[in-house]
Amino acid sequence: MPECTDCGACCFNEHYAYVRVFAVDVERMDGRALAFTHVVDGQRYMRFENGRCMALGLDPQAGRVACTIHPQRPDVCRWLERGSGECRSQIAAKWPTREAGMAAEAARAATAAACSTPRGS
Fold first, then answer.
1. Measured CA distances, 75 to 64, 69, 80, 92 (Å)
2. Which end of the chain is more exposed for a tag (fewer CB within 10 A), N or C?
3. Is 118 part of a structural domain of the chain?
């Protein structure tokens, strides 16, 4: 079973309203954490773009991930225990999405680095 920071499969999903954020979660979140949420039909959710939670920090070179709001993460994220049946099913179902997300982030980082390199260097 991979460590959470080597996996993060649970943080990948194509649906924009995947992780519900409840009032108790909002009370715990500061402005930076709340910036990773959005409201859909009167309900608050974590914001997902390009197939991943926007609060998830990616390090594609190391193949590692980290929740950038971990102490303030929603209860639904807290309830998912590493190695549980749900965890294993998330890995089985979402590993291809996770790998695609890591590849996309690596490509984005490479493009950004190439654009910031002075010409003639």
1. 23, 12, 9, 22
2. C
3. no
The dihedral sign for the CA sequence 43, 44, 46, 50: positive
The answer to whether 26 and 44 are in contact (CB under 8 A) is: yes
Say if CB 56 and CB 101 are below 8 A apart: no
Residues 6+ apart with CB under 8 A from 30: 72
Q: Does position 121 have pLDDT exceeding 60, yes or no?
A: no
In a domain, 116, yes or no: no
Residue whose structure tokens are 């490509």: 107
Residue ranges making up the domain that contains 54: 4-109
48-55 average pLDDT score: 92
Neighbours of 78 (CB within 10 A): 10
Nearest 5 degrees, angle CA 109-CA 50-CA 59? 35
